[in-house]
Design a protein that fits this description.
This protein is α+β, with helices and mostly antiparallel strands. It is built from one helix and two strands.
Length: 54
């Protein structure tokens, strides 16, 4: 995913939230895959072009 940008919540060293998004590395704790599959379906259900199989 060389062209992908990953955004995350900015946190100060003391853990305080700034409510800003910053670019960073992809984290295993993110919910992106969960939200994608909940919206568009599991990978096995998708066709080559990214549309639901009929």
């Amino acid at each position: 995913m060389a062209n992908a940008s990953f955004l995350g919540a900015e946190r100060r060293p003391d853990g305080e939230r700034t409510f800003r998004l910053v670019e960073g590395e992809s984290l295993e704790t993110g919910y992106g895959k969960d939200l994608y599959y909940a919206t568009f379906g599991e990978r096995e259900e998708m066709s080559v072009h990214g549309h639901a199989s009929e």
